[in-house]
Amino acid sequence: MTSDLSHDHSHGFSHDVSHDVSHDVSHDHDLSHRRVLVADPLSPAGLARLSAAGIAVDAPTGLVRDVLLATIGGYDALIVRSATQVDRAVLDAGRPRLAVVARAGAGVDNIDVAAAKAFGIHVLNTPGANSVATAEMAFALLLALVRHIAAAHASLGAREWRRADFSGTELAGKTLGLIGFGRVARLVALRALAFEMKVIACSPGLTDDRASESGVRRVDLPTLLAESDAVSLHAALTEQSRHLIDAAALASMRPTAVLINGARGGLVDERALAEALRTGRLRGAAVDVYAVEPPPADHPLLGLPNVLHTPHLGASTAEAQANVSVEAADGVVAVLRGESADGLLT
Question: Using CA atoms, how far apart are residues 91 and 100, in angstroms rounded to an integer?
Fold first, then answer.
């Protein structure tokens, strides 16, 4: 277990800073000669923003890597979600025309940001656009897990009446530990406090004053794991935070505790978690993200009775999809015009 964890993936990258890109791209309000490739699904609102700016938009479905590599050199911008991998080879193939890669969402672990910076290609994300949806999902997972909602639903659907088997626990008076304290985590804290929970948090750069302003107590990682009745992950996935929740971390948690992961699958050693759940070392887990997506059929967590699964639905609301799409599109338009843009990472 390591205590070197990164910021909330919705907070640690951009810090809401607007960057002036006019030194890289000349001011150009006529974008009719610009082309954008949308490699992953984008809402109609986002596509409309690009078209309204006069940009030519290609939004193919089922774009395979070989086609991406062969065609990216003909575009000024690339917009992706989490599915398309924008590695060094893709960025290199985009040179010299490719000016910006936009991630419609917060996490950029599918983009080689260092290579983009070396090639002079801008990378931007939309860290605040889906924060409410992601926070609500994390809290929904917590409630559903401690009240056995999914299992009870399935049981009654099978024409069973097993009330005694689904006795849960209340959230009021319990301690919620937040690993990472960016936008999403702060929204989760707000909801937890409304449920009369005590909230503690661990995050690099988090001060006592900032935590106190949110009604939260700052602690270190070992303290958080030892004191929490529920632990919710909100950190970015980096080499330092990979398997942050490993066998040692799980062993330090209360046997009655539950783990919520709506951030990134790689933050958790999934085999160690499965073992802790099978042996009763941990009460339960709710998982919306996986190290490999979709998870393979033999994934160690699939099918365990004390695991609640969802297929990466954190940002899957109509509002969030529109928000991330519009913000990504607006960022691309700004960069191509040589104007300031929110969410720039390079």
Answer: 10
